[in-house]
Amino acid sequence: MDMNELMKAAQEAAQNIQSQMADAQASLDKIEVEGAAGGGLVKIRATAKGRILGVEIDESLLAPSEKQMLEDLIAAAINDARAKADAAGNAEMSKVSAGLPLPPGFKMPF
């Protein structure tokens, strides 16, 4: 294999990896996670990309006296959804990068 063939093969491999990464990134917006707080009294649905799809609040929390707790539970549910979105995203991206010769702990720039 001469140098030109080697360069061409490397370029094709890089383009293939780039395409797989783009596909994986696009699929992250289709993967749904649900964050919850207060034993499920507040639920947040989000994509693995972190886009919030919906909020569900149990009626028992709608009393004015529950305002502070409700705000805290919403924040906790969003953080739970974000953590699950990150985990789903990392799992999806690791499928793509599994065959790549990357050093341990290397993070993709996207």
Shape: rod-shaped
Number of helices: 2
- CATH homologous superfamily? Nucleoid-associated protein YbaB-like domain
> How large, in whole angstroms, is the Cα Rg?
21 Å
User: What is the terminal-to-terminal distance?
Assistant: 33 Å
How does this structure look, described?
The chain has 110 residues and is of the alpha+beta class. The chain has one domain: Nucleoid-associated protein YbaB-like domain (Ybab, Chain: A, 2-Layer Sandwich). The protein is built from two helices and three strands. The chain has helices at residues 3-28, 67-97, and strands at residues 32-37, 42-47, 52-57. Strands 1-2-3 form a three-stranded antiparallel sheet. Strand 2 (42-47) and strand 3 form a beta hairpin. The longest helix has 31 residues, at 67-97.
Strands, helices and their partners?
Blueprint: H1 3-28, E1 32-37, E2 42-47, E3 52-57, H2 67-97
Antiparallel strand pairs: 1-2, 2-3
In short:
With 110 residues, the chain is of the alpha+beta class. It is 52% helix and 16% strand.
Key terms:
rod-shaped; alpha+beta; three-stranded antiparallel beta sheet; 2 helices; 110 residues; Ybab, Chain: A
